[in-house]
Every structure is written in structure tokens, then in C-alpha cells.
Amino acid sequence: MASKKKKSIFDFDPFEDMEEMIKRIQEEFDEIERQMMEMAKKGGGEVKTYGPYVYGFSITIGPDGKPVIEEFGNIKRMGNKPLISEEREPVVDVIEKDDEIRVVAEMPGVDKNNIKVNVDGNTLIIQAQSENKKYYKEVELPAPVDENSAKANYKNGVLEVVLKKVKKSSGKEIKVE
Fold first, then answer.
1. How far apart are CA 15 and CA 23, in angstroms?
2. CB 130 within 8 A of CB 111
3. Which positions fall inside the CS domain (predicted)?
4. CA atoms within 13 A on the CB side of 31
5. Cα(152)–Cα(102) distance, rounded to whole angstroms?
6. What is the mean pLDDT of each run of 10 residues along the chain (177 residues)?
């Protein structure tokens, strides 16, 4: 009988361990779902299916070197309870360059004719609706923009909005009389 070799701390494989952890979590979710369905059926209750539920987050490093965490999806936190909305919040990246701001939003499954983009001051509002998907996001822009310069493009489920920054005046000397 072959004996198992004891693992050394140097034999640690984070990806293998992560895959095992994800597998265990999925098995636990499946078991909870199975138990809930059984309870609903035994209680004579009607089994309703809701969803899809979408929740995620992205982490980026801001210009000051600090992490910026942004949540997306259709589940929001309200105190200790989740609030589920029909509208999903798309994943959005805001890229600021010298003279422009580029906003990129992932919104698969909608037609470009069903997308509405509005600029209101320093806020970009993105809305879209298809037969079975709704998106809504208010994006705070990092600088004032020229609303008339806005251009939007939608391709392969990705919306890209480019806005020119308002040029700051270099100032003007006022002669005192």
C-alpha cells in the first residue's frame, strides 16, 4: 500500500486550491437550492423562479494609487438586505486623457437603437432596454465636458462614449481704470 506523501508548505498551488474552493461553494449553493425547492413543494407552495441575478465588482487602481472598487449587476445592498432590480448596472470604465474622457460600458444583448445616453453636467446617464434585459448607470465624470462634443458607438455589446473636456481658460488680465 502506497503511503500519501505529506504536502510541504512549498507545494502550495493557489490555482488548484481556488478551483477546489469554487467547486465546494457551487456544491453548497446547489444543495441549498435543492432544499429550498423541496420545502416549497412540501408546503404546498408554488415554486417561482426569479432572475437572472447578476452581481460583481471590479477593482482598479486610481490615479492616487488607491484601489477603487465598483459594484455592478442588479443586486444592491440596502442595509442588511439585498435589493433586486430589473435593471442591471453595466461594468463601466472611465478613461481620462489630456483633452477627453472615454466611458466604456459592457451592455450585451441590446440593440443600439434601444440605447439612450444623456449628459447632465458632470453626469453621464446610460439606459438600455431589450425584450429581456435592462441596463441603467449614472457615471460621475471626473471633469467638466462639452456636451456638444459627445460621440457614442456601440459594437459587439460594448458602448463607448467619447466626450471632449471643457477647455479651461488661461485667464485674461483685466486693466484697472
1. 12
2. yes
3. 87-177
4. 6
5. 10
6. 57 68 83 78 63 72 79 71 74 90 92 93 90 89 90 94 83 75
Amino acid at 145: V
- Count, residues in the chain: 177
Distance CA 86, CA 128 (A): 12
Q: How high is the pLDDT of residue 10? A: 61
- What is the assigned CATH class of domain 86-165? mainly beta
> Which pLDDT score is estimated for 171?
66
The C-alpha cell 425584450 sits at: 131
**CA pair distance 103, 63, nearest whole angstrom:** 16
Indicate yes or no: pTM above 0.70. no
Report the pLDDT value the prediction gives residue 57, as an integer from 0 to 100. 74
CA distances from 9 to 5, 17, 21, 177 (A): 13, 13, 18, 81
Cis peptide before 14 (omega within 30 of 0): no
The Cα-based distances of 132 to 37, 68, 135 in angstroms read: 25, 31, 10
Residue 119 · residue 88 · CB < 8 Å: no
Question: What was the pLDDT predicted at 102?
Answer: 95
Q: Phi and psi (nearest 5°) for 19? A: -60, -40
